[in-house]
Design brief:
Length: about 170
């Protein structure tokens, strides 16, 4: 499976706590997949993913009106310039404490109606962009006292950019 960290058994073989080297968290084939994704995102090929790179790659996927604040939020997730090692570290950190693999696979199957086991990088980047937007929406549309969220209003804001008048 793409992007899954190595099993804990392998990390234990390196000693308790594992290596501080992020490359030891992944199989070589996974590192190659991340490298290919990094190369696609690094539109200007300078070895660093910048706001402009993100804007350009999102534009190639049809996301033309991405706000500067959203791009800044993406870049600020890193502690500094996003080179490949930082990119890989960010994915490693995101994978810690993730849901079990079968739960994640089930979620992705929704995006793979033909059952090929594959989805495109463009879709992954669109999902990431949507999740960033959703984070902002949760602040704008907090759950009611029963823990429910008005998803129709959220969908309206996602597609129209403004809250619907009641």
């Amino acid at each position: 499976m793409c992007c899954a960290p190595k099993k804990a058994k392998r990390r234990q073989q390196q000693g308790e706590g594992g290596s501080s080297n992020v490359f030891s968290m992944f199989e070589q084939s996974q590192i190659q997949e991340y490298k290919e994704a990094f190369t696609i995102i690094d539109q200007n090929r300078d070895g660093i993913i910048s706001k402009d790179d993100l804007r350009d790659v999102l534009a190639t996927m049809g996301q033309l009106n991405v706000k500067n604040e959203e791009l800044e939020a993406m870049v600020k997730e890193a502690s500094g310039p996003i080179n490949f090692t930082v990119f890989l570290t960010m994915f490693g950190e995101k994978l810690k404490g993730a849901d079990p693999e079968d739960v994640i696979v089930s979620a992705f199957k929704v995006l793979d109606p033909e059952g090929t086991g594959l989805i495109g990088l463009c879709l992954i980047l669109q999902l990431y962009h949507l999740m960033l937007r959703m984070t902002n929406l949760w602040a704008a549309f907090p759950p009611d006292v029963a823990g429910n969220v008005d998803y129709k209003n959220i969908c309206y804001v996602i597609t129209h950019g403004e809250e619907k008048e009641e």
